[in-house]
Amino acid sequence: MSRAQRLLNLIQILRSHRFAVTGAALASELGISLRTLYRDIATLQQQGAHIEGEPGLGYLMRPGFMLPPLMFSEEEIEALVLGSRWVAQGTDQQLGSAAQSALTKIATVLPDELRHVLDASTLLIGPKTASCGGDAELRQIRQAIRSERKLEMRYCDLKGKPTQRTIWPFALGYFEHVQVLVAWCEAREDFRHFRTDRIVSLLLMDQRYPRRRQALLKDWREKEGINEGMVEQ
Asked: How far apart are CA 79 and CA 85, in angstroms?
């Protein structure tokens, strides 16, 4: 491993820890000596990385340090291309355009030989086979999730019966033929799952819901599990 790659790996490891991590643990994960680790941390600090701590106490990197252009492996590039193509094909137009824009930005920092790998990737995504909800509704849902705001929703159940709901949206699941909104429903006082193709209308409210979306997601996972049935019947 080159020193440049080792420094990048060290940054990524530090970013993955929310609390201080010991130098011994960092050195072990990188497969280097403590002495080498201390030199690497000093180098990063000189380059502007906000790494706090000292030998014996542990290290923590504060937000704000901008990485230089990264070097990707061929498999990492193929994964980025495949993921972007899936987003462009399997989601709404706005999110698909954002995926393509991100890929274009990545291409600008790649060396020529790796840019060719990106352009020539032969990993393909099949055509979208079903309508999973309108672009406007999906944009509104994502906006509500990001801002932690309530939604007024008119929704049809499996039997086609319309109901009016006030919900706290906190997650949106993308599947091959359907997209599912995960939310807390005020009427049911419980978590519910709504297929986006059954949403009749949405109104983004000014009122924020009283809990953080991360807390709602954690409670939902504990209650139902990610792999359990997600669609309200």
From this structure: 10
How far apart, in Å, do the first and last CA atoms of the chain sit?
A: 53
Ranges of beta strands (E only) in the chain are 51-54, 58-61, 149-156, 162-174, 179-185, 190-195, 199-208
Helices (H) and strands (E) in the chain, counts: 8, 7
pLDDT over threshold 70, residue 203:
yes
Q: What does the radius of gyration of the chain's CA atoms come to, in whole angstroms?
A: 23
Residues shown for the chain: 233
pLDDT tens figures, 111-124 = 676 677 777 777 76
3-state percent helix, strand, coil for the chain, nearest multiple of 5? 45, 25, 35
Q: What is the DSSP letter of 69?
A: P
Instruction: Dig out the tokens for 216 from the structure.
Output: 């709602």
The per-residue pLDDT for range 155-179, each reduced to its tens digit, is 998 888 899 999 999 998 888 778 8
Contact 197, 174 (CB under 8 A): no
The answer to whether residues 31 and 11 touch, using CB atoms and an 8 Å cutoff, is no
Q: Are 123 and 82 in contact (CB under 8 A)?
A: yes
